[in-house]
Description:
By secondary structure, the protein is of the alpha/beta class. Helix content is 40%, strand content 28%.
Amino acid sequence: MEIERTDNGDVTELKVVGELTIFGAADAYGFLTRALSERRDLRINLARTTEVDSSGVQLLLAAKRAAEMHGHSFELVAHSAAMLEVMELLQLSHVFGDPVVMPAQAA
């Protein structure tokens, strides 16, 4: 897993590349806590996320809660197929509250 950071005004965007799983949870936690400690709005770009497990979901939920407790926004954008699958399986769309765009199905 790799996380690419971009700062734009008051928003920090973290692009998760690869797996958001137990195997990279400690690294992802470090990126998220550093970004949250800066008291900025946080956007997580999941376009290049290839796999998400329960540890990845827990990290995202904890980051959302922490950002909102400090009065900052938290959003997931560009949901990958892996993230959409997990959100559907665990019925999490309403929890994150982000607009989810379903990719077109191949005919």
